[in-house]
Amino acid sequence: MKKNVLIIGAGGVAQVVAHKCAQNNDVLGDIHVASRTVEKCHAIVDSINEKKALKTDGRVEAHALDAMDVGATKALIEKTGAEIVINVGSAFVNMSVLSACIETGAAYIDTAIHEDPLKICETPPWYANYEWKRREECEKAGVTAVLGAGFDPGVVNAYAKLAYDEYFDRIDTIDIIDVNAGSHGRWFATNFDPEINFREFTGQVWSWQSNEWVSNKMFEVRKEWDLPVVGTSTTYMTGHDEVHSLSQNLGVPTVRFWMGFGDHYVNVFTVLNNLGLLSEQPVTTAEGLDVVPLKVVKAVLPDPSSLAPSYTGKTCIGDLVKGVKDGKEREVFIYNVADHKEAYEEVGSQGISYTAGVPAVAAAMLIATGEWDVKKMANVEDLPPRPFLAVLDRIGLPTRIREGEDDRALDFA
């Protein structure tokens, strides 16, 4: 059994993680929230106390931390006695936090691939650029490191593994579809860190098709899907972490990721990009100031966590899997629907943060009980999916499956 959780980050996803850890502190123990902006950590602690979220008596504390500082992170892990670290800070800190976990023996969980702040849209193989290079280091230290344990990547990886194990003899294609049919009421905003959001889309779009990488431009490949609850939705093919790991770990010849965008988002993005305002390279103003355009755009946009109170509507995220079972062609859509308003009422965050944060807590609970404490680095599809999906079903993200006219909840009891 592992106990006590250190949450790194203090944004909307961290808010969800902290609340869900509190709701399950009989399993997870003490909860610590750390960020460079300690005031945000205190606000999360206060919200937990206000909602009386703790399942049993326990500690919830806030800490100031620069997670790029390996020594400081190591010291905080040791000070708090945290045996599980949930990293939902900036993707720039992943390797630093992982180093601190390896040095202390704490288990490590993240929700997105590591990024180098000086590079935009790195080319595949993504996990092999940073994380997978440290597999041997984790195994030698006996440290469990679960990569990409959000929703996408994360839950969609578990959906793919469930399909691989139970629904198909051969999988030909996996199309991961992520549609947010909600509305936040602002003229323009991003649902998570604007800097990370825009960096995903300013370079080439990579997909895995017929066992090779295929490159396209952003918003070049468009497709409409008829999805449960949210209806007909327009999506665009984009690159995403799980395209790499699923194609390699499950040997699937075609893996693509599709994200829903409205015309307004596409138009604003295109204008900003064409003006050079999404560049990470510094420019000098007429006054002699060096500024990074992307950081200026981030500074003037709403904080994603501020969108939560007025957010309405639902999300639909899932895997459309095609292949063969018992000699016959088969197609299933394994998915979840989440509600923005319900998420806010429960934990004070909108649905995008909710779907990203809840799975990380489910992973932490499985590490705490030993089911996922594998003492090495693993992507979610490397681990048994049923325990993970069963926990998610209990704590707020139930799974459904649609096959033809049949659409039903999956039971993992």
Describe this structure in words.
With 413 residues, the chain is of the alpha/beta class. The chain contains 15 helices and 19 strands. The chain has helices at 12-23, 25-28, 38-50, 70-80, 94-104, 126-129, 135-141, 155-167, 194-199, 241-249, 263-274, 293-300, 340-347, 351-369, 385-395; strands at residues 5-8, 31-35, 60-64, 84-87, 107-110, 145-147, 170-180, 204-209, 212-217, 222-227, 231-238, 254-260, 283-284, 290-291, 314-325, 328-339, 377-379, 400-403, 406-409. The longest helix is centred in the last third of the chain and has 19 residues, at 351-369. It is globular.
Task: Classify the helix fraction into a percent range.
Answer: 25-40%
Low-confidence stretches: none
> Number of helical segments?
15
The side-by-side strand order for the widest beta sheet comes to 10-11-12-7-15-16-18-19
Largest sheet: 8 strands, mixed
What is the number of beta strands?
A: 19
Strand content: 25-35%
Computed structural class = alpha/beta
Q: N-to-C terminal Cα separation, in Å?
A: 22 Å
Output mean pLDDT. 96
- What integer value in Å does the Rg equal? 20 Å
General shape:
globular
Give structural attributes.
413 residues, alpha/beta, eight-stranded mixed beta sheet, seven-stranded parallel beta sheet, 15 helices, 36% helix
Nutshell version of this structure?
The chain has helices at 12-23, 25-28, 38-50, 70-80, 94-104, 126-129, 135-141, 155-167, 194-199, 241-249, 263-274, 293-300, 340-347, 351-369, 385-395, and strands at 5-8, 31-35, 60-64, 84-87, 107-110, 145-147, 170-180, 204-209, 212-217, 222-227, 231-238, 254-260, 283-284, 290-291, 314-325, 328-339, 377-379, 400-403, 406-409. By secondary structure, it is α/β, with parallel strands linked by helices.
